[in-house]
């Protein structure tokens, strides 16, 4: 049998089912998946924060962290340790229950979205048949946590940040949803695995013509806004609101917000890679048999992570280049430009799909 | 315990911006009244970095007091010193040697460049772009190195003395300045590419913080803030001091009156400063770098006023002398103070994000406002 993540998962499943009752096997699998998810979270946090610091350092004529470990690799570990032992302060006037609950809501929301993402060929936690719908539904739960944090902090900066974030995420959810729908129209399915399978002979960004390219651009803008990243980082806006909704958070509670931000970036980029760049599908060019064959040798997980990290790099590139928008400009951009364009684009995509004008 | 004002009677939100806030660039305290995100009133509270420099100067001799002025507008330290030296020279009617005049103007313009570079980076950071700050500091560092070689300090220069400058130029000075100019001229297009041409940045600047020509005059604005509203007020042109009268440069004037106008004025001033330095750097006359003065300076009884154009606007130095060893009274008319007074007028009806952009384009240096 070929060696892959999917085959490992299969053999674990078979081994467990052979050695214990099916309900016990299922429970053990749940536990394994949970532990893996948490482990993935921790690793993603470390890797992405390190990546952000190195990317920003590169753009800002700096070296970035280079003292802890080889090339500063363990800087984030040291920072996490620091945050772990820091006092988790709760302000006197805060609503203690909501204040302490908020980071977990944000965290759990981003954790749930991991479920339908295909990390490699046939390697999915939960291949639900309404995958993209599930993703766009669950990913917006996070805003409740942000609103909670802003309200419960009893701090006016936090409140303003949370209100901005609420307005922003609710608006940009529309564009993100509509651009996801474009792909659903083309692939005629909502499950993540069949969307990926529909890109067997070419990624949607290549064979979907203009509507897909437009929706890809809109999707990238919208998810940058949804994850509260610059140039749409109005919820934090450190030069205006000091730190926005997490002004009052310290220690591990702050770290959870921070981690959730990075995991959210990973998730939206993974969705982007899945919908537009073929997920774990290798790059195939027409009938270049040799080239396609070589591409097939690269493991599917590498393809998936490569595409995802490319998109993450693009989003980091935005952050370290662009100034921040103002709140009214941000909402104008969505309601006056992106939303009409994506609605029109949806019609265009439908036309293209019905007429079969795509490759 | 003090009860904090959280809401006004009409239900508006009151927020304290500062004294510790990332974008007040110092210990400025603004009490802003908000209706949602819209600003209704901005009330600056001063005094957090008041060191009573004016009072201190009254007990310092005419040579000594100049040094305390480096701590006012620390980004134009040379120009502050220059103004004070001019005032003392006016009182004693000292003839400053040509060489000293040229050196002073060179230093002033290098200071102006350094100050505007920092302003450019800080403004970009205020509107959310962090990277330009590092690019600006890369070039500013070179100016600081030149300063360090020439006068031994990087921030509080204390280089200008009554009658000239404290030391002669470093032998490498001309070469270093030319190298810097070559580099900086190649980097200015990069500045434009990264920030000026950015559509988000332009949208953040245009039609924000408007102040009309009449209002700019009545608030006493000066420097780039007033020139962006079409007020011609460059002291270097209007009341030339030292050798500015013999130099070819144009006054940067815009008529927009908004943040974008102020941005363009400062960018143009950088180009003008480069041109001034280029005119002078090869023509530094030989001779004394300082006039021969008495060991102890005593200004005659009377009142003396001079003004210079700092990077932020018009700095006025007013000395009242009773004929003694120390001034009887010294008053500085600092540009930042008057420019800050227009903040409420500019920010009314704008958003919180705009307030930050307006403060950025006013280029506030808080120790200059408080003294």
Average pLDDT rating of chain B? 86
Helix/strand-derived category of chain B reads alpha+beta
Distance from N terminus to C terminus of chain A (CA atoms, Å) equals 34 Å
Helix content of chain A: 55-70%
Rg of chain A (CA only)? 21 Å
CATH level 4 superfamily of chain B = Cytochrome-c3 Hydrogenase, chain B
Shape of chain A: globular
CATH class of chain B: Mainly Alpha
Number of domains of chain B: 1
Q: What order do the helices and strands of chain B follow?
A: EEEHHHHHEEHHHHHHEEEHHHH
Q: Termini distance of chain B?
A: 30 Å
Mean pLDDT, all residues of chain A: 83
Quaternary = heterodimer
Characterise this structure:
The complex is a heterodimer of chains A (359) and B (371). The model of chain A has no long low-confidence stretch (mean pLDDT 83). Chain A has a two-stranded antiparallel ribbon with strand order 1-2. Chain A is built from 15 helices and two strands. The radius of gyration of chain A is 21 Å and the shape is globular. Chain A has one domain. Chain A is mainly α and 359 residues long. In chain A, 69% of the residues lie in helices and 1% in strands. Chain B has 371 residues and is α+β, with helices and mostly antiparallel strands. Chain B has one domain: Orthogonal Bundle (Cytochrome-c3 Hydrogenase, chain B). Chain B has 15 helices and eight strands. Chain B has helices at residues 53-57, 65-68, 77-92, 98-126, 131-151, 173-196, 199-205, 213-218, 224-227, 235-238, 259-281, 335-341, 343-347, 352-362, 366-370, and strands at residues 13-17, 29-35, 38-45, 160-161, 164-165, 302-309, 314-321, 329-333. Chain B has a three-stranded antiparallel β-sheet. The two termini of chain B are 30 Å apart. Chains A and B meet through helix 7, helix 11 and helix 15 of A and helix 4, helix 5, helix 7 and helix 14 of B.
